[in-house]
Amino acid sequence: MKTENGIAAESKETPKPDSKSARSASNKIRWDDLPLPVLVEFTFTMSVIILIILFLTIVGLSWLTNTKLLDIAIRAGVSTLGMGGLLMLITRQISSGVLDANLKSDEKPEQNQSDELEGLESRSTTEVR
Q: Which has the closest alpha carbon to 49: 96, 91, 78, 99?
């Protein structure tokens, strides 16, 4: 089919995925869609604030002592990289701990429900007799 400009229009039909792939795609968790817990957000925000204050302090004190611009850049860069690495490790440890705790707390109710169902099934067979 041609349009007004004479260019062939692409068909608007897209292949529909089968029901199994549609279900598996809907069950997949995207990490981008999950909200971060408050503790992780707080840790990340404090890390950024600490790095900015550190950078400004080093640049300000170095500028007051009439240090060369190259020395100021080296001091600020090395201190920011060092402190940023440490804060990144701390934030990573806190995030992994919080996420592991959330995963474990989500698994426990499922196990309790399966135990309760097994208990109900065993009781029901004895009550029928």
A: 91
